[in-house]
């Protein structure tokens, strides 16, 4: 099975075509990118087939410490570079990154300053093709690209990946929620059984309590004298 680890940079023109472009036929690419952490060790993978379904290339590249969305865009750029370098004028891309697909389709705005240069480079390469389509698929329909992306991350992390064994799953690219959208896990505090107030004269005395609206509340009703320093330890 043909394979290739792209050497082209993310930016700049890909290498000149290695053969005459076939104007009427399409190639089809499934691409995926991920990072183990955000940012973290990242990589992308892509499986490229001709219009009859024959595999013509596998792309797999470690990207260093990057974000999930950076890796997803790198997968798309790798597919575009392959098409341009090998003279394929028509390219269909399938990705399980809904964010990237809808940004390329013009349905979502690109607000991230880190993604905007990748988006603009992708659009520049797309404009050089005679035909381009991109669509979203669920992750279970993108298994080959996911495998290649994980192999890239394993190589970068010097982690052996046994054949037939499931690779560690990367974190998938999702839009970053605002602070208002970030759920806060509720916490409950059990009040201890009634007991005599604990003296606070010693520096090493530990009291239990919680903070609310920036105010320290001590459990058990023990008053805090003025002028002391309080060390808060998260439980």
TrEMBL record:
<dbReference type="InterPro" id="IPR036397">
    <property type="entry name" value="RNaseH_sf"/>
</dbReference>
<feature type="compositionally biased region" description="Low complexity">
    <location>
        <begin position="186"/>
        <end position="198"/>
    </location>
</feature>
<dbReference type="InterPro" id="IPR002156">
    <property type="entry name" value="RNaseH_domain"/>
</dbReference>
<dbReference type="GO" id="GO:0004523">
    <property type="term" value="F:RNA-DNA hybrid ribonuclease activity"/>
</dbReference>
<dbReference type="InterPro" id="IPR012337">
    <property type="entry name" value="RNaseH-like_sf"/>
</dbReference>
<dbReference type="Pfam" id="PF13456">
    <property type="entry name" value="RVT_3"/>
</dbReference>
<feature type="domain" description="RNase H type-1">
    <location>
        <begin position="23"/>
        <end position="154"/>
    </location>
</feature>
<feature type="region of interest" description="Disordered">
    <location>
        <begin position="158"/>
        <end position="198"/>
    </location>
</feature>
<dbReference type="InterPro" id="IPR053151">
    <property type="entry name" value="RNase_H-like"/>
</dbReference>
<dbReference type="GO" id="GO:0003676">
    <property type="term" value="F:nucleic acid binding"/>
</dbReference>
<protein>
    <submittedName>
        <fullName>Phosphoglycerate mutase family</fullName>
    </submittedName>
</protein>
């Amino acid at each position: 099975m043909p394979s290739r680890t792209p050497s082209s940079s993310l930016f700049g023109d890909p290498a000149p075509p290695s053969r005459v472009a076939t104007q009427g036929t399409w190639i089809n690419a499934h691409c995926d990118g991920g990072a183990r952490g955000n940012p973290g060790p990242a990589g992308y993978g892509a499986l490229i087939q001709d219009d009859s379904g024959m595999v013509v290339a596998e792309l797999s590249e470690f990207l260093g410490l990057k974000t999930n969305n950076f890796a997803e865009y790198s997968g798309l750029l790798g597919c575009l570079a392959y098409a341009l370098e090998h003279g394929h004028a028509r390219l269909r891309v399938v990705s399980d990154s809904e964010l990237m697909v809808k940004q390329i389709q013009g349905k979502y705005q690109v607000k991230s300053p880190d993604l905007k240069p990748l988006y603009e480079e992708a659009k520049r390469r797309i404009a050089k093709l005679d035909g381009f389509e991109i669509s979203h698929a669920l992750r279970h329909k993108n298994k080959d690209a996911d495998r290649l992306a994980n192999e890239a991350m394993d190589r970068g992390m010097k982690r052996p990946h046994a054949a037939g064994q499931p690779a560690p799953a990367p974190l998938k690219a999702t839009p970053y929620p605002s602070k208002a959208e970030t759920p806060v896990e509720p916490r409950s505090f059990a009040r201890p059984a009634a007991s005599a107030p604990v003296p606070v004269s010693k520096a090493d005395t530990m009291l239990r309590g919680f903070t609310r609206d920036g105010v320290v509340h001590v459990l058990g009703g023990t008053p805090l004298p003025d002028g002391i320093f309080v060390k808060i330890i998260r439980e």
